[in-house]
Amino acid sequence: MDNAPSASAETLVFTQLRKLGLRPTSARVCVLQVLNEHAQESLPAERIFLALIAMGISVSLGTIYRVLSELEQRGLVHKEWHALDAAGKSHYVLAASRQAPASCLMVCPSCGRSHSVTDKSLADALQRHARTGGFDQGLASAVISIVCNQCASAAPSPAAQTPGTAPG
Ligand SMILES: [Zn+2]
């Protein structure tokens, strides 16, 4: 028990389990700790298994799969198919690190006026598209460049009204 993780990491794991109403068994705590340490990465169960062995913790691969499926059913963990995994194994990642920002920001490129839009379905859709497009790290922020009405009426130049239009 020498290589105990930091107290704050441990507290986080216990909080996560308590929220789900799960008893903090050592297998659950260990698996969650590895996932938290790799919060921005999706890991196959084997990597979690090896990480635990490296920490001197012996948990069977079967137990890891069982814990992961429990956590997945409760929405704490996402199961993903990884395009780069040659063996076609599922990868697991904390759901929180795969959630889109709750709101996106419309910003006028001319005056900098901003308007925050909170629309979960929009954010989720953007997140989905990001991942489909090969941005597996997920959306960090969503900023839409759009000329505000004030600027549009002050300078009615067509160029200013269509920022980001791709040339044909
Ligand atoms: Zn403006």
Briefly say what this structure is:
By secondary structure, the protein is an alpha+beta fold. 43% of the residues lie in helices and 15% in strands. It contains 7 helices and 6 strands, in the order ααβααββββαβαα.
Describe the structure.
- Pfam families: FUR.
- The protein has seven helices and six strands.
- It has 168 residues and is α+β, with helices and mostly antiparallel strands.
- It folds into two domains: 98 residues, Winged helix-like DNA-binding domain superfamily/Winged helix DNA-binding domain (Arc Repressor Mutant, subunit A, Orthogonal Bundle); 56 residues, Dna Ligase, domain 1 (2-Layer Sandwich).
- The strands form two sheets. Strands 1-3-2 form a three-stranded antiparallel sheet. A three-stranded mixed sheet has the order 5-4-6, covered by helices on one side.
- Helix 1 crosses helix 2, helix 2 packs across helix 3 and helix 3 packs across helix 4.
- The chain starts with 6 loop residues before the first helix and ends in a 7-residue tail after the last helix.
- The mean pLDDT is 82.
- The structure holds zinc ion (ZN).
- Zinc ion (ZN) binds next to helix 6.
